[in-house]
Every structure is written in structure tokens, then in C-alpha cells.
Amino acid sequence: MKHEQQQMDVVDLFMKLLSFESITPDDAGSLQFIEEYLEAYEAVYVNKEGVKNLFLYKRFGEGDHLCFAGHVDVVPPGKGWDTDPFVPVIKEGRIYARGTQDMKSGVAAFVQTLKEAKAFNGTLSLLLTSDEEGEATYGTQIMLAHLKDIGMLPDYCVVAEPTCEKSFGDAIKIGRRGSINGYLTIHGKQGHAAYPEKAINPVHQVSSVMHRLAGIHLDDGDEDFAPSKMVITDIRGGMEVTNVTPGELKIMFNVRNSTQTTQEDVREHIDEVLEGMDYELVLTQGSYPFVTNHDSQIVRQMRQSIRKITGIETKLSTAGGTSDARFMGAYGIDVVEFGVINDTIHAPNENTSINEVKQLFRVFSDVVTHFSTT
After folding, report:
1. Which of 89, 31, 94, 1 is nearest to 353 (CA)?
2. What digits encode the pLDDT tens for the residues 335-374?
3. Which is catalytic among the residues 27, 132, 133, 324?
4. CATH 3.40.630.10 occupies which residues in the chain?
5. Domain spanning 10-176+289-373: which superfamily?
């Protein structure tokens, strides 16, 4: 049974959410609290392997379905905090606690937006998971699969991750690069360091072509994406002795790829560079690149609302790592990401300003108010 929660303002709600010790994948009761706070919305839970996923929705009319999405889980606080990371503290207009930027500020802003929404020409919803900072295997993506099965996939989505760089409102993300992981093993022939002619040293083989293999652009990029770049993350071989040459060399790498580069392109590149060598290559795709059309209704409305509230002409970005927006993009949902300044996420003494939280709430409220009239 739902217990109606007392109406709060966005800052009080933010402080309450920060007090939940919701370290991945434990929501620590925060999802139930949000469900009860939004008592006018219908709830759907999909829980698996200790991960909780909550979808709340309210049909106001027959128009488009706009969803706000994010996560309530946070990374462990670690050491070096000046205050208790789960007892939010206000100092000089800033709030200090784990999750202030990533991303309970965004959650508070859109939960309060939905709480105060009186009308909308369509359906408003939120999607929250307790496993974004972890593997995300049983998080947003399984909720989206369920929503597809029941015919409830949103048309548009706002993910409230922290996106701003130096000033609140200066950047929104309209896409994300993909992530290709590579595991390369070059086989040689182990031997004695005094008789290199009797061995095949894979380190020597690769050293002559490393400049062609590592740190290079695999495409030229475009207006949305920087060039896809191969980045070496680990190299190891040998027996940690000085008189035996290695029999094999292992290289790990990552490619944050644009829509112009695929796994097959990476494989063809390595085949060309390592031609004539004996090697094995395993590629895995952690996420796939996507981009939302610049003229999408959600992109246009978000930019208009940011301009109205902040006076800033926001830029469109695809920089950074991964987020759950990638799962939205995979379903063809037009998705944008917008949240507070990103400069202390995952760090000790993570913090954000009260003013940013209030402004974020105002931006989201303006999006909801004017979305169906754009």
C-alpha cells in the first residue's frame, strides 16, 4: 500500500534522496520512496538478480510519451571525505554528498517536475534503475525490453546525467560513442636472449609497426562525433627475466567508435597492420554508437528551455563515456541527456550547487509545459 509523502520543494527532495545509502545495486528504499511520492502515477517494477527497476507513468492525453530516466545507485564513497557522504551538508550554497552530481540532482529535478505537472498532451513517465554504475546487465535494458513487450516504450526520453562542462546549461548530449574492446595475442617463439636469431620475438615484430597500430584515427569523424581512435590499454609479455625472450605478446585496447567505424573495420585495420604475423584477435562491443537527430522535438525543446532559463545557447555533444542513454538509442527512442555540471563525480566531497538543482528543475518543468506545443 502506498503511503502519501508530504509535498516538498526540489531542494528538500534532493536532500532526502542523498540520504539513501544506495550503493550499486542496492536502492536502499529510495525507489519505494519515489513511488510513494508520485502517488498519482502507476508503478511497474522489473527486478532481477538484486537489481530493482521502477517505471512510473501517467497518461494525461493521447499525444506523445515523454520519459525521464536515470539511476538512484551511486559508487562507493571511498576515502578522503570531509563529511559523512550520506549525510548531505550545505556549505556556501553547495550540497556535499555522494551522488550530488551523479545523479541524484537529476533524479530530484525530474521527480519534482512530474510531481507538479498538472497537464500534458500525452504520457509522462520516469524510468529508474539501481544498477547503472555497475554492470547494468539487469538494469534499464531489461525494463525497456519489458516496456516493448507491453507496448509502453516512450517516444522521447531525457536522461538527467551531469552533462554541463563549465557553466550550467552549456552542453547537452544527443548521442554517445560506442565502445569496442580488443584482446590481441601475437605469437612468436620463445628463446635465449643470447641467441635472438633462433627465436621469434613478438615484441620486436610489433615495435616496428606500433605507430601504425596505436593511437591513430580510424575515421575522420563528423559534425556529431570525434574520430574513432584506437587506444592501447595494456601490453604484457615475457617471464620477467632478462635472459629469455617472450613467446607471445598480449595487447589490450579500446576504440570509442563513431557511427563510421564498426568491429569489422577494426579487424580489417589490424589485419593490414599485422600482415604476416601469427596472431589471434578477439573483439567485443560494450556499447554501440547512436545519435539523435538535431531537429528532433526533444532536442529543439530542451535547447529552447535551457535558453529561456539560463540565457545560454547550449552546444550539442557526444563526448564522454557510456550511460543508460545507449539503451534508449538502441530502441530508436529520441534521447537527450542534460544535467548539472560534471566536475566532481565519483570523487571525494562530490558536490553541486543549490542554484543548479533549482535551475535544472525549472528547465525540466519548462520542457514538460511546452513540449507538446513545439
Report:
1. 94
2. 999 999 999 999 999 999 999 999 999 999 999 999 975 4
3. 132
4. 10-176+289-373
5. Zn peptidases (3.40.630.10)
